[in-house]
Amino acid sequence: MTKPITLKDIARETGVHVSTVSRALDNDSRHFLTPEVVERVRKAADEMGYRRNRMASSLRTKKTMTIGLLIPDITNTLFPPIVRGLERVLEEAGYASIIVNTDDLADRESRLINVLLERGVDGIVDAAASQDEARLKIVEKQGLPIVTVNRQVGNSSIPSVVNDDTEGVRLALHHLYEAGHRKIAHIAGPQKLSTSIARLEAFNSETKKLGLDLPTSAMAMSAHFDEDEGQRCTGELLDQDWKCTAILCANDRLALGAIAEIRRRGLSCPEDISVTGFNDIPFLDLIPPGLTTIRVQQEAIGRLAAELLLKMIKDKTATVPRTTILPVQLIERGSVAPPRIR
Amino acid sequence: MTKPITLKDIARETGVHVSTVSRALDNDSRHFLTPEVVERVRKAADEMGYRRNRMASSLRTKKTMTIGLLIPDITNTLFPPIVRGLERVLEEAGYASIIVNTDDLADRESRLINVLLERGVDGIVDAAASQDEARLKIVEKQGLPIVTVNRQVGNSSIPSVVNDDTEGVRLALHHLYEAGHRKIAHIAGPQKLSTSIARLEAFNSETKKLGLDLPTSAMAMSAHFDEDEGQRCTGELLDQDWKCTAILCANDRLALGAIAEIRRRGLSCPEDISVTGFNDIPFLDLIPPGLTTIRVQQEAIGRLAAELLLKMIKDKTATVPRTTILPVQLIERGSVAPPRIR
DNA sequence: TTGAAAGCGCTAACAA
DNA sequence: TTGTTAGCGCTTTCAA
Q1: Pairing mode, if any, of strands A274-276 and A293-295?
Q2: What is the dihedral angle through the alpha carbons of A186, A191, A194, A196, rounded to the nearest 10 degrees?
Q3: Does B55 touch chain A (CB under 8 A)?
């Protein structure tokens, strides 16, 4: 129960003024001092077990060396890699991060942004951005650097680092097309998320380019990115008269649900119906028939976002790219086969 | 780019002293004031968009309303549920959390504890505890509340919230025994972690109680909790003269590796060799043959740890249970069958 | 019930 | 090169 050592304590011990101690301990100002003093102070600080009180220094410098990270849900395997990527570069630069889970709930988002603001974060990385940018405008108005990752906010000017959703859908679609599929359905994600919107749009425009004439009922709308919704939407798709031979899903969990529903109906994937996913979450290779999917670079997204944010923090007037798009990759496994002739 | 409103601003606006404003905004002191003043101040604060500067208040009160969370690796699916459980109860109580990843590296652990200490966290939840308690002693000596979760530190007095590792092993072992297995091997986890140690000890004592006479080579030691090590250890087990009919693995990922290696050798699970895991990570039900495992309550662990920590923060002299053990549950799937008669 | 004043620990002008 | 001084925004005695 020893109480923390302060600069004052070290000053008393070494016989110099606190400001001298402060300078000796600050790498940017130590060169103002004689090496002997610096040495003496540092040694004393070390021996006394000094630890800088960042609250106090933040109060003076207006920098907390902390950034805020908004994510929808840390238990969703999509996000931890982003967190790691972020922390890798932030930690290096001396920043810590406060992570909050919004559950994709608007009121939670507002409340949690406030939590971050109260704690004086130097910047925000938003992996939980909704399409409503009102809340983020508040942040921008404070002059606080912010970047969204994985998702973008409508047509706002907030910089974002995202996956190439369009290319991913194109890749999956062409893969199905080349396997011989013409009647391809799409299970879209929740339309309040930019990723879902982008993927649905890509699906529409690419199928058109391919000359596929799909009924509107070829698109099923999921309410959540989960297995249950994948299952429900697949049911919808299979119940109608128009019969698809393949389902391109907006993410892996929807695809897993799709495969489950296909099986439940006594059909099989890929023999009766081919399925593709998006994201390439862990363990997909172990789950039969092996989901063919689009691999995204989540950790890279985190790293790039951190670098962008750091740049914005260092120079508030820095010009940063409005959108950084990361390449995606088709991962072929067992869930796609030529359509059955029928 | 508006700069933050301070108490001073509100004081000027409402014509009262800053200390009055402070009191009006503090639920514990507002009753000293006339309701009219409170009302007037609060209204002004609201309209002006006041947001408390927690750095400043922390400096005075020595409370940051922030707790630190040490985890080995957020991308390991075992930990996010703990984080959620923690945050659920901490957020409720007005606390935010700083999460750091130690990668189970001793020097990172020290450095990151220091990061948390510099930021003046009010308490620490350590889900990355190693067996070396030296680093945590520093924390305790500061009088800073700390609790370990999932793991315990040797025979220290630091409170912990853990799963019932012993019971879990007993459950899995008896399940195998009842299926007819007598030659049961164990793939142990890294012996620097308390969970691994506890599970290995339980394996030893329970097999003894059951009267199984196992050679020491029935125990393979993994260096990491991952698939590769599971595979390597299984190779070791299968290469020797003593032939096991079942492998009890210290966690699910080791078990997944074990199954892979069994298959690679042209054998099959559970027909030739039965396998059990520990933790019940997501998607296990979708991976054939369906790993029989022990389900642990990670989110509950997080919640309980948070409640414990809060109690310790509120009352530094509070007596808290040294160990809180959560019940575990056997989840039967397809990876266990009677041994082949041979 | 409100105000005045001090100070948390630190940094940064300014002075010497 | 070092010391002096002021003050970041807040809370909390003490006094009125």
Answers
A1: unpaired
A2: -20
A3: yes
The CA angle B27-B28-B29, to the nearest 5 degrees, is 95
- Residue B264, H or E segment: helix B252-264
User: Tell me: the pLDDT tens digits for B270-293?
Assistant: 999 999 999 999 999 999 999 999
Using CA of residue A271, residue A296, residue A125, residue B84, what is the dihedral sign?
Answer: positive
Question: What global pTM score does this model have?
Answer: 0.94
C-alpha B322 chain-centroid distance: 16
What is residue A85's three-state secondary structure? helix
Going by C-alpha positions, the residue among A253, A257, A275, A268 that lies closest to residue A173 is A275
- Fold of the domain built from segment(s) B61-163+299-327: Rossmann fold (3.40.50)
Does the pLDDT value for residue A167 go beyond 90?
A: yes
- Its CATH architecture, for the domain A165-296, is 3-Layer(aba) Sandwich (3.40)
Distance CA A173, CA A210 (A): 9
CA dist B156 and A86 (Å) reads: 34
Which B residues in the span 113-152 are in contact with A, Cβ-Cβ below 8 Å?
A: 114-120, 141-143
Residue A63 sits at φ, ψ, to 5 deg, of: -130, 130
Residue A290 gets the label, from left (phi > 0), alpha (psi -120 to 50) or beta, of: left
Q: Given the structure tokens 């919640």, which residue do they identify?
A: B303
What is the rounded distance in angstroms from the CA atom of residue A238 to the CA atom of residue A257? Answer: 13
Instruction: State the Cα torsion A68-A72-A78-A83 to the nearest 10°.
Output: 10
Determine the average pLDDT of the residues in A55-82: 96
Distances (CA, A) of A189 to A1, A275, A278: 53, 15, 11
Quick: pLDDT tens for B105-129.
999 999 999 999 999 999 999 999 9
B220: its two tokens: 């393979």
Separation of alpha carbons B119 and B42, rounded Å: 30
Decide: CB of A7 under 7 A of nucleic strand C.
yes
Q: Residue A4 CA to nucleotide C11 C1', Å?
A: 19
Which segment of A153-157, A329-333, B219-223, B270-274 scores lowest on mean pLDDT? A153-157
CA–C1' distance B318–C5 (Å)? Answer: 36
B20-33 in b/e burial notation, b at 16+ Cβ within 10 A?
Answer: bbbbbbeeeebeeb
Contact (CB<8Å) A119/B282: no
Phi and psi at B263, nearest 5°, equal -65, -40
Query: Quick check: A31 pLDDT over 70?
Result: yes
Calpha distance A249→A252 (Å, rounded): 7
CA separation for the pair A63, A313 (Å, rounded):
10
Interface check for A87 against chain B (CB to CB < 8 A): the answer is yes
Alpha helices in chain A (DSSP H): 7-14, 18-25, 35-48, 54-61, 80-92, 106-118, 134-141, 165-178, 194-209, 227-239, 252-264, 298-314
Q: Residue B164 carries which DSSP code? A: -
Domains of chain A, residue spans: 7-50, 61-163+299-327, 165-296
Residue type, B49: G
Q: Which residue is nearest to nucleotide C6 (CA to C1')?
A: B60
Q: Cα separation of B221 and A321, whole Å?
A: 50
Compute the radius of gyration of chain B from its Cα atoms.
26
A342 has pLDDT over 60: no
Dump pLDDT digits (tens) for A107-127. Answer: 999 999 999 999 999 999 999
